[in-house]
Amino acid sequence: MTAHRIAILALDGVMPLDLAIPAQIFATRPETPYETTVCTSAATVHTTGAFTVHAEGDLEQVRAADTVIVPGTQPPRRPPEAVLAALAEAHERGKRMVSICTGAFALAAAGVLDGLHATTHWQYIDDFARDFPAVSVDRDVLYVDEGNVLTSAGVCCGIDLCLHIVRRDLGAVVANRIARGLVAAPHREGGQAQYVPAPVAVAGDASLSGTREWALQRLSEPVTLRQLARHAGISQRTLMRRFTEETGTTPLQWLLHARLGRARELLETTDHPVDRVAQDCGLGTAANLRLHFRRVLDTTPTAYRRTFGS
């Protein structure tokens, strides 16, 4: 595979988790082409944790990278002019630009987000909208993909965005393998709400994780709201409320995206005809599979297999 250079730009006040997420997901692996370097504009960068960062790379690596990732800082601040110039130059050269959490403030200050949709941490989104009126702010999403410019909401949404990038680059199988290694959810759609009343599922009987796992084992079968509620031992209304609280989406939307994820894996790893893939993932017909692929992924099953099939 051709090497893909990733520069993670650590600014002063960087949040340790925001920095660690892309460093871990884009770490060197036999099945990925990523060569990742942490970069700074100074010899030492202070984090919001109890340590400092001494990076291998500098702004020259940022300019030379294929993908530039800017983790968030707390509080969000305007980077030095040299940093803004390097970000603007990378963007002008067509490099992929990514922010995690409040890193969107740095991209916006460099003019990278002008005229585009973007998001950031919900606590700072009003400040972001006020400071950067040229940016169309999406408030209730996990991440925004504008092609060569991508932004994520707060902190752990960076996991969703980075896995989305891997999936876009290398397909669902590789992305799911990395997610399993992180013990992370394989895929959350970017359009889900970023602020969920119960962002972490409650352990034990109160959680619907067992019901979701039950459904995942039956993706090839019709699974109704009534069946999900019966398995969970609660009413359909309670299921809808608690499911949305735990996942940020409705049961039927969650099922649809789980089926699309299964279809992507089948297209990557088997030579089954499209109509069989549609049956095996629970979408019924090839026409229905093509419809959802076009609507959600903006491609066709055949084109997807041509790109990612083994």
From TrEMBL:
Keywords: DNA-binding, Transcription, Transcription regulation. InterPro entries: Class_I_gatase-like, DJ-1/PfpI, Homeodomain-like_sf, HTH_AraC, HTH_AraC-typ_CS, INH-QAR. Pfam families: DJ-1_PfpI, HTH_18. GO terms for molecular function: DNA-binding transcription factor activity; sequence-specific DNA binding. SMART domains: HTH_ARAC. PROSITE patterns: HTH_ARAC_FAMILY_1, HTH_ARAC_FAMILY_2. Gene3D superfamilies: 3.40.50.880, Homeodomain-like. Residues 209-307 form the HTH araC/xylS-type domain. PANTHER family: ARAC-FAMILY TRANSCRIPTIONAL REGULATOR, HTH-TYPE TRANSCRIPTIONAL REGULATOR RV1931C. This is AraC family transcriptional regulator.
